[in-house]
C-alpha cells in the first residue's frame, strides 16, 4: 500500500505498509507544523483506519510516524501565531485527538529534533523511540509562542513524572536521547540509522502481547482510560471553537 499527500506539488506526507505496520513519514515546510501538513497527516490516519477492515490486516499492526532527514517535528508555524490565525492550532488539536483515540497502537520514531508542539505530538503517541546520537526533545518554544492549552496539559502530565514535567515546561530543559530515556520521555533509543527499526520492535512487542479485552482491542481500552481527561478537554475546545 502506498499513498502520498501533496500540497502545491510537494509531498508533505507519505504512507506505506511496511511489513505488518503502517509507516507515516512527514516532511515539514520551513521546519514547522502548518495546516497543510497537519491536514495531510489527518488524511493519512483516516486512510489507515479505512484500510484495516478492508484488507483484514494480516495479524496485529501499529502505526509508526517519523520525520524527514534529521528532523521529526518542531512547533506550529510562527507566522500563524503572530497573525492570530487559529486554523493551524485547531487542526493541531484535531490531530492530537485523533492520535489519542486511534484504534491501533501508535509509535513515534523520533529521528531528530522534536521541539514545542512537535514534542507534544510525539508524547501523544503510545510509544516513542529516539535517536541516541542526534537531536533533542525540548519545549523551548513555549517561551515565545504560547503555553499549552488546558486540553494539551493532560496528555503530557499523564506520561511524565512531576519532576520531568517541571523540567520540560518550566525549566525548558533540552533532552538528548540518553537523558530522554532516563527521564521516561521515550521507551527506547538507537542510532539514527536504526531508530525506525527500534520503533518497529516496539510496535511488534505491543501488538504481539496485547490481547483484546471482551473483544475490544487492549490499546483502545487503555487509551480510553489514560486519556479520558484529555479527550474531554480537546473535544470541548474543538467544539467550542467550531461554534465561533
UniProtKB/TrEMBL annotation:
<dbReference type="Pfam" id="PF00378">
    <property type="entry name" value="ECH_1"/>
</dbReference>
<dbReference type="InterPro" id="IPR029045">
    <property type="entry name" value="ClpP/crotonase-like_dom_sf"/>
</dbReference>
<protein>
    <submittedName>
        <fullName>Uncharacterized protein</fullName>
    </submittedName>
</protein>
<dbReference type="InterPro" id="IPR001753">
    <property type="entry name" value="Enoyl-CoA_hydra/iso"/>
</dbReference>
Amino acid at each position: 500500500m502506498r499513498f502520498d499527500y501533496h500540497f502545491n506539488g510537494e509531498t508533505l506526507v507519505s504512507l506505506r505498509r511496511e511489513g505488518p505496520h503502517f509507516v507515516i513519514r512527514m516532511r515539514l515546510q520551513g521546519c514547522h507544523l502548518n495546516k497543510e501538513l497537519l491536514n495531510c497527516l489527518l488524511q493519512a490516519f483516516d486512510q489507515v483506519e479505512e484500510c484495516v477492515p478492508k484488507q483484514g490486516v494480516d495479524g496485529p499492526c501499529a502505526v509508526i510516524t517519523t520525520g524527514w532527514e534529521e528532523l521529526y517535528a518542531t512547533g506550529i508555524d510562527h507566522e500563524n501565531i503572530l497573525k492570530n490565525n487559529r486554523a493551524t492550532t485547531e487542526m493541531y488539536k484535531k490531530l492530537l485527538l485523533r492520535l489519542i483515540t486511534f484504534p491501533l497502537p501508535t509509535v513515534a520514531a523520533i529521528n531528530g529534533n522534536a521541539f514545542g508542539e512537535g514534542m507534544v505530538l510525539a508524547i501523544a503517541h503510545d510509544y516513542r523511540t529516539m535517536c541516541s546520537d542526534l537531536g533533542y526533545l525540548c519545549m523551548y518554544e513555549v517561551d515565545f509562542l504560547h503555553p499549552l492549552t488546558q486540553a494539551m496539559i493532560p496528555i503530557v502530565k499523564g506520561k511524565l513524572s512531576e519532576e520531568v514535567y517541571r523540567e520540560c515546561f518550566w525549566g525548558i530543559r533540552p533532552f538528548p536521547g540518553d537523558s530522554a530515556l532516563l527521564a521516561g520521555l521515550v521507551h527506547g533509543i538507537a542510532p539514527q540509522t536504526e531508530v525506525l527499526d527500534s520503533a518497529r520492535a516496539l510496535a511488534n512487542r505491543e501488538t504481539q502481547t496485547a490481547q483484546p479485552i471482551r473483544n475490544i482491542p487492549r490499546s483502545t481500552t487503555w487509551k480510553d482510560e489514560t486519556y479520558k481527561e484529555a479527550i474531554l478537554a480537546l473535544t470541548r475546545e474543538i467544539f467550542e471553537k467550531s461554534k465561533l
